[in-house]
TrEMBL record:
This is Solute carrier family 35 member F1. One of its GO terms (cellular component) is membrane. It is found in: Membrane. It is a multi-pass membrane protein. Keywords: Membrane, Transmembrane, Transmembrane helix, Transport. Pfam families: SLC35F. Putative solute transporter. It comes from Chelydra serpentina. PANTHER family: DUF914-RELATED (PTHR14233), SOLUTE CARRIER FAMILY 35 MEMBER F1 (PTHR14233:SF10). InterPro entries: EmrE-like (IPR037185), SLC35_F1/F2/F6 (IPR009262), SLC35F_Transporter (IPR052221).
Length: 368
């Protein structure tokens, strides 16, 4: 029996390590997609003078509409597009506007402030997500989670310091206060959007979230495009290279939006935003070859510091305040471990990492 228990513990440990590595790896896939978004945007704006952030977002929302909104439209019953709109149309309308403006504010900020300021202030999304998760999703954290978050932010600070040392200060910086306020506003809206996304993908479905974002995002970004960027679009020197860059940007953005709900459901909105801190470093490493950026050893230190913070954060599970079983386990880790049922009545039902093996609390029923 002792040997079986030891084997079970080793098996559980391997599973936990595997889930930890998987959650970190999934976050890095998202970071690489954001790196692709940043590189294509940089080529469009600097090499071809195509400053069209709203149009770029509009292309993504159209793709989401074509894939996910049409999927909802052909479904039957309560998951049909019309049925969802009847129940929650105004909520998704607000969420769509929030998502559009979050993208717009952060991109707009680059015209007024420096890259380093954007990188640092964009971290404001992390405390926003933590607070919203605490109050609305009722997520509770251990001390190790906060240590991991602090380590990740220190890694970001290290990267910003390296930017200053090597002189990588892209950005006009003429109206720095305006730019900084735009970043803070965008980070706040991103935080709201991410927490809403986590709630929806856990309690409704990923397709419903993406379908509704595609529907309202296409509509409102189309209006914003017609008002604000129709003149910029006429200035774009269209050719196959620019077309390819727009296709590349749209593919990366569509991949990010499609894959992020999967990662959020597997981990959490907080974990995802911590993972995305490495996106700027991937962009930098690409820039060393593409844009002749100067290298600093602090960049590598920053990268590994953020990864250490991610591992610390993901190494243990959070719990939901209103579930007494998870709370009891959280306070008494040596006691019996109970898995939550997949379809519970609790709202929201949030489990970020595996809570362990199932224990038999009820007798099995044999069916002849």
């Amino acid at each position: 029996e002792n040997e079986e228990d030891a084997e079970g513990e080793h098996g559980g440990g391997r599973r936990e390590r595997g889930e930890l590595l998987l959650s970190v790896a999934l976050g890095q896939v998202l970071s690489l997609l954001i790196c692709g978004i940043g590189l294509t945007s940089k080529y469009l704006s600097e090499d071809f003078h195509a400053n069209t952030p709203v149009f770029q977002s509009f292309l993504n929302y159209i793709l989401l509409f074509l894939v996910y909104t049409t999927t909802l439209a052909v479904r039957q019953g309560e998951e049909n597009l019309l049925a969802i709109l009847k129940r929650r149309w105004w909520k998704y309308m607000i969420l769509g506007i929030i998502d559009i403006e979050a993208n717009y504010l952060v991109v707009k900020a680059y015209q007024y402030t420096t890259l380093t300021s954007v990188q640092l202030l964009d971290c404001f999304v992390i405390p926003v997500v933590i607070l919203l998760s605490w109050f609305f999703l009722l997520v509770r954290y251990k001390a190790v989670h906060f240590i991991g978050i602090v380590v990740c932010i220190l890694g970001m600070g290290c990267m910003a310091g390296a930017d200053v040392l090597v002189g990588r200060q892209q950005g006009a910086g003429e109206n720095k206060l305006i730019g900084d306020l735009l970043v803070l506003g965008g980070a706040t809206l991103y935080g709201i959007s991410n927490v809403c996304e986590e709630y929806i993908v856990r309690n409704m479905s990923r397709v419903e979230f993406l379908g509704m974002i595609g529907l309202f995002g296409s509509f409102f970004s189309g209006i914003q495009l017609a008002i604000m960027e129709h003149k910029e679009l006429l200035k774009v020197p269209w050719d196959w290279q620019i077309g390819l860059l727009y296709v590349g940007f749209s593919a990366c953005m569509f991949g990010l939006y499609s894959f992020m709900p999967v990662v959020i459901k597997k981990t959490s909105a907080t974990a995802v935003n911590l993972s995305l801190l490495t996106a700027d470093l991937y962009s930098l490493f690409c820039g060393l070859f593409l844009f002749d950026y100067k290298f600093s050893g602090l960049y590598l230190l920053s990268f590994f510091t953020i990864l250490v913070g991610l591992v610390l954060y993901s190494s243990t599970s959070t719990y939901v305040a209103q579930d007494p079983r998870v709370y009891k386990q959280f306070r008494n880790p040596s006691g019996p471990v109970v898995d939550l049922p997949a379809t519970g009545q609790l709202e929201p039902s949030v489990t970020y990492t595996s809570l362990g093996q199932e224990t038999e609390e009820e007798p099995h029923v044999r069916v002849a």
